[in-house]
Each structure stands twice: as structure tokens, then as C-alpha cells.
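The following block was generated as part of the benchmark described in Methods. Ligand: adenosine-5'-triphosphate.
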Amino acid sequence: MAAAVALQGVSKAFGDVYAVRELDLAIRDGEFFSLLGPSGCGKTTTLRMIAGFEFPTEGSLQIHGVEMALQPPNERPVNTVFQSYALFPHMTVEENVGFGLRMKKVGGTEIAERVKRALDMVRLSHRATAAPKQLSGGQQQRVALARALVNEPEVLLLDEPLGALDLKLRQAMQTELKDLQARVGITFVYVTHDQGEALTMSDRIGVMHEGRLLQVGTPQEIYERPTSRFVAGFIGEINLLPATVIDHDSVRLAGGRLVAAATGVAPGSEVTVALRPERLELYGVNEVIPTNLNTVRGRVTRRVYFGDVFFYDIDTTDGVIEVKEENRPGVDLHEIGEEAVVAWDPAASTVVER
Ligand SMILES: Nc1ncnc2c1ncn2[C@@H]1O[C@H](COP(=O)(O)OP(=O)(O)OP(=O)(O)O)[C@@H](O)[C@H]1O
Ligand SMILES: [Mg+2]
């Protein structure tokens, strides 16, 4: 089956500034796909090209196998939901949702049915006759969603739709959006710069940086197997230690040799070893440590209690390493000033470029 959205070699230049460069991406039918990246990396530009508000400078863009790169927005089977949802204040909820259909001269009975269906989807049928100002921010954003869903798009494009909501409401809406997507089965292309949001909601994530798509994968692949230093550092807490490749399965830190998969990297290359704090363990210097683990010795310089976990900073010859330890019953506490050994399974580390 053709991808819901397929971009091949897509670039977009504004004057001599490239907002998007040589983007190749296939979004599957029914998928919740997120474009994630820092401000200015080209997320909105990519979404606007899929919507038809911008045309690619180069490349091919297909929706369900049909070339769309130069089609106007109204001839594409997509709809967009923006962060600023701008409902018409003088119209009721149902009038807002039905507005586009009335413009298209769809029949009255059909409009009524489709508006009702769309409002059911976002669970707002009971507020059909309310004015927008009588609704909360989250409810208003759901009206904006219904206004897009009423067109029965094959692909729904969402650009930071929850950005204007406060944290609590945003989290509630994340769950609701994810449920809605699973229920209606429409392909969602979701733009966000919030990594937590992308990790919790998406089937797959595409991470963008400076106009380029750096990595596409499931949330777990992106978090656990970053293929670049940028992706490693952008998502979650991580230690990045400078190292030199010895051979395909070992690298050298200032503090000594480590086992780490460095396949495909030439010996002598300068690389970075990426380590998640929660994959590290802390041992006392006199404890027996399983010999298969990598170890780095240092001194405890900070301990922060978060209730369920402790965060430690260990000052080593390779810099400060952050360790996250679960607050299990019987866990050994390490005191500030104490010597300690940071240990981890070699499989828990990732080697990326310097
Ligand atoms: N119409 C335009 N004219 C000129 N430059 C533009 C235009 N639209 C976007 N750009 C530039 O293209 C780059 C990517 O912008 P884009 O809006 O796609 O980023 P973004 O990832 O959505 O960022 P944010 O998270 O801040 O919304 C930026 O450098 C931006 O200044
Ligand atoms: Mg944007």
C-alpha cells in the first residue's frame, strides 16, 4: 500500500535560506507520526508543504500515491490544526464546526450529521450551542479539532496544537488526542518541539535539525539508539563523554578502555559515548562489581533526592557523570565527597560522532 504521505528529496528555500533540505520520509497509513526538533529546524515548513500552503523548491510529495507537490491546499485530502485556533466568537460551537461545509455548499442535513459526528469524536456534543468564550482552552482546541475532522481528511496535520495550553491541560489533551487518533484511524502528522509529548504520543518520530531529518524511529529507538550526537542530546537526560575508537568493540576514555560497539568507525576516530543516567549503577569502591560491566571511578559531588529516585553527580577524569538511582528499599546511599564507581552494561551505551 502507498504511504499516507511520502516526501522524496524535498527541499524548501526562502530566498537563499534553506528551511528544509533533501527530506526523504514515508509516513504510514493510520500512523501517529511526530516531527520533533528545536525552534527553526523546519517542522512547520514541512507541515505546510504537506498541507499545500508552501510548495517545495525541489522534490516530490505524494499523498496516498498521488503527486501533490504543486496542488493547492483545497485539492488535497488533508486538514490542518494550528496552535492558535481562532474560532469565530459570534458563532456557536456547531456553527464554527459546520462553517467550512456551508462555504462548500454541502446540504443542510448532511452538514448537521457531519457536525454531530465530529463533535461526538471530540466529546463535545453537549456543548454544541455554546459560544466559544463559554468554553475552556482545552474545549476550544477540541472545537478546532472537530472543525478539521468534519472534512473527513485522510491526513490530519497538527502544528503544536497544545502549545497554548497550560501543563495539566496539555497532558490531559495528549492522552485524549492519542485516543481519538486510535479511534478514528486517521493518519496524524504532529509537529512539536516537546520531546516528552513526542515520546508519549507517537507511533514513530522524525527528529529534525537545521532543515534536515536526522533520524526516524519508534520512541524507543529514538531514545535508546540515537544515531547522532544531536538526537542523543536533544531527547532526555544523557551523559556525553569524549572518547577515541580503539577497534570495533572498544573505545578509550581519559580514564581507561571501555567496551562499546563502535562498528563502522575507523580506529583513532574521535567519538562520543552516550550514556543514559538511568542505565548507570553506582558502587562503593570496596564492592565487588560484575566483570562484564564497564567502570569509571570518581567522587560524589552532588546528591539530589526526588522521592522515587536519587540523582548523583560523579566527578571523574572524563568529566561529571550523572547517575539516576531508583530509591529501592535497602539501596546504598553514597555521600558527598565519597569515592564511587560508575558501572554499566556495555550494551547500554551508544557511540555517536564527536
Ligand atoms: N516565509 C518564510 N520566509 C522566510 N524564511 C522562512 C519562512 N518560513 C520559515 N522560514 C525560515 O525557515 C526556517 C524554518 O522555519 P520553521 O517555521 O519551519 O521552523 P519550526 O521548526 O517550525 O520552528 P518553531 O518550533 O519555532 O515553530 C527558519 O529559519 C525560518 O526563519
Ligand atoms: Mg513551527
